[in-house]
Design a protein that fits this description.
The structure is a single chain. The chain is α+β, with helices and mostly antiparallel strands. The protein has 11 helices and 9 strands. The chain has 3 domains: about 120 residues, Orthogonal Bundle (Butyryl-Coa Dehydrogenase, subunit A, domain 1); about 90 residues, Butyryl-CoA Dehydrogenase, subunit A, domain 2 (Beta Barrel); about 150 residues, Up-down Bundle (Butyryl-CoA Dehydrogenase, subunit A, domain 3), CATH 1.20.140.10. It is about 50% helix and about 15% strand. Strand 8 and strand 9 form a beta hairpin. Helix 5 packs antiparallel against helix 6 and helix 5 packs antiparallel against helix 7. It is globular, with a radius of gyration of 21 Å. The two termini are about 40 Å apart.
Length: about 400
Amino acid sequence: MDTATSATDTPDLATAAPPEVSYVLTDEQRQLQEMVRDLFGDRATPERVREVMLGAADAAFDTILWQELADYGLLGLTIPEAHGGAGASFAELAIVLEEAGRRLAPVPLLSSIVLGTEALLGAGTETQRAAHLPGVAAGTTRLALAHLDVGGDLLVPPGVHASRTGDTWHLDGTSAYVIDGASASHLVVAARTDTGALELFLLDAATAGVSRTEVEVLDLTRPMATVELAGVEVGEEDRLSGGDAMAALHRALTAGVVALAVEQVGGIQYTLESTTAYARDRIQFGRAIGSFQAIKHRLADMLVELESARSAALHAARVLAAGERDELAIAAPLAKSYCAEVYERSAADGIQLFGGIGFTWEHDQHLYLKRAKATKLLLGDPKHHRALLAELLGL
């Protein structure tokens, strides 16, 4: 499924015919799901997740799992075959993201494979794609998108300013809450020019004048950093000039929103599975607590909400894969707002259902509650996305 373009052409997303994407898992997608579930089950164990998040693994992410994902070709699913990828769609990537969310896998899938890659695909020239995408697919190039101002407000311009002298660009400013910003090898930086136009730059994170500082986060499985640029000089070849920068940034953020919704479904699935198993095994007053009506009702409600959330998230993923722009404008914010609230509610219920052990550091359920609360705010909270929906639908 090669989606590469020539060196002089960039894809016209407004007029290009969207690919046909099935709304039912194909045999190949089911096999992918089984393979990925086994991989994360074997590698992203609770012990390994804790080892990485606490720094005992001597890396900000699980480098061993990351390389395995690359070896299996999973990091290049949405990258064109001409650039070392599989040329598949976001529907296949969504399968990987759900399983990663189910295990809280500490790898930079969201930052590099979704946000960074989508920005590069949307705004990069063919030369820039050829230079960087093979490394992304191989796992050696890890991208991070720096697009927020220091206040973290999605509705205001980025906190980085760009000025130009000849073929040299000067970048100054600060970008906050950069996902995996401290461990990324390359940064996609959104900046405003003197005229107010938005530009995207792809630069090596080791470029002179770039400093990165890790920030304290609630979800220790997903590090963030503040990126400061002081007198950074880059060439015209570092500006992503193959497409409209604003459209590419919107494309990347929309893909990120859908990716988070799919991840959240994976977390809800784990919570339901673990609490149901505990309810079968925990004996109270001579019987399993799962036999009590109050517990049955709570688990049943969790299952109903899980299936609704899965439908919303996978619909958004398939619409994104099919390039259905009008439907995506509704499906993406709907999925993010609903899945975020269901995840938070399910994770909190899980704490209660596990009783006295659910909130302890040694138990895993609090990690899911922290992920739920963190992703609820990431890339816009439910109130933000409901406002987008209301505006779009004229409510």
